[in-house]
Backbone:
């Protein structure tokens, strides 16, 4: 393990790394569909929704549209998919509720325990493409004990754009190497490392369910810390 | 008390309202001066430092200089005052330490207890002219249990500029009347109310020590809640 004595803040990727977006949304929407009497292949909706995540942000990154919050990108994709998958019976209030499913994601079983330990020694925060309101609502419901909620929204640059990482360090008044990005995604870590941040990885092998590809099943570089999960991350950082 | 059923988030002014900047800094700097053998009228330094708070932000508000973090405004004022008050023996490291005194402020005795109760029912956060790094460091040290740390820095508009209040609500994805500004300063509340936020007041009659003027000793308008302190605020909001 590298010398990490300068690290003061741990910033976490959230979707997939800290919370199980796929399992949570499928459970949540299946229950909701039953309650309001709407039949749909909710797992397919969720998978297609997430499949459009990067393309929707890419429009913003490429400057083809002005800054747009993730909640709004999610809503546009949802409306498009409801039409394409021919899901009937979702009025405006129902669509709004479904879209806020991204605020109701459950943490992976080790997440709260790991964060609680890490918080004793480090400033812990988010660094997510989720908008601040989404992340705050999620944290409140899930009991994620963040010291600070940082979002791509605050610097108007979606990860993996360099300004998302550099702007987060700047908001904390810290040098890049005083901040460690913690994520289950090698690509996120590679972009953070290029900006001078420290890096920690653990795998989430069931993040994508049956669609999981070999991607991100293991560390593909010599990240500063490679852990089994977030509790193990705490142990490896001496918390 | 008005109908406050729409309120979801309580955003707190920090300096003076939640933490005792004057008492904390005088204690901290007196101890530090003794430790490093530097003699000064620390109470005078602190009072003059704060007296330059509004004028220094006014340069930014008026567009006479680009956005500047409060930590940096504080440092400029400190250097000016060290020269004017002829304080000898503070090298660069000592000046940096003194300037970070604003990160080491102690809460008023009722603050943590009040926030802990309010947090059960509301999203609680800061809305301060302090920069995010300052507020995060202060919260960590003082045990202030914020759900979210919002700062004028995030919208680059110092209070009482309207965008500071409106931008905070927008970051939370809330309407202005879903947010209540909570402060011991009537002027801050008046500006927030003009933007449509709800308002709560309690007095901090010793904030300025012997320099306290009649200002802010009591509510000077019909704020939505007027409390004795932050524990009383929790009681009045049913927490």
Residues:
């Amino acid at each position: 393990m590298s010398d990490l004595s300068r690290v003061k803040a741990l910033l976490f990727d959230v979707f997939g790394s800290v919370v199980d977006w796929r399992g949570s949304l499928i459970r949540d929407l299946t229950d909701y569909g039953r309650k309001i009497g709407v039949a749909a292949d909710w797992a397919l909706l969720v998978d297609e929704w997430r499949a459009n995540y990067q393309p929707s942000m890419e429009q913003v990154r490429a400057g083809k549209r002005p800054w747009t919050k993730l909640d709004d990108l999610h809503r546009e994709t949802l409306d498009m998919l409801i039409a394409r998958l021919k899901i009937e019976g979702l009025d405006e209030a129902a669509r709004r509720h479904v879209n806020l499913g991204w605020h109701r994601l459950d943490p992976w079983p080790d997440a709260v325990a790991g964060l609680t330990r890490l918080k004793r020694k480090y400033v812990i925060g988010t660094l997510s493409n989720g908008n601040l309101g989404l992340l705050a609502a999620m944290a409140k419901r899930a009991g994620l004990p963040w010291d600070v909620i940082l979002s791509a929204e605050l610097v108007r640059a979606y990860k993996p754009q360099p300004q998302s990482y550099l702007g987060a360090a700047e908001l904390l008044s810290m040098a890049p190497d005083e901040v460690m990005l913690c994520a289950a995604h090698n690509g996120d870590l590679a972009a953070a490392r290029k900006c001078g941040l420290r890096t920690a990885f653990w795998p989430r092998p069931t993040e994508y369910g049956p669609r999981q590809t070999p991607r991100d099943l293991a560390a593909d570089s010599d990240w500063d810390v490679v852990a089994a999960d977030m509790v193990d991350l705490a142990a490896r950082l001496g918390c």
About this structure: The longest strand of chain B covers residues 123-128. Residues 26 and 148 of chain B are 28 Å apart (CA to CA).
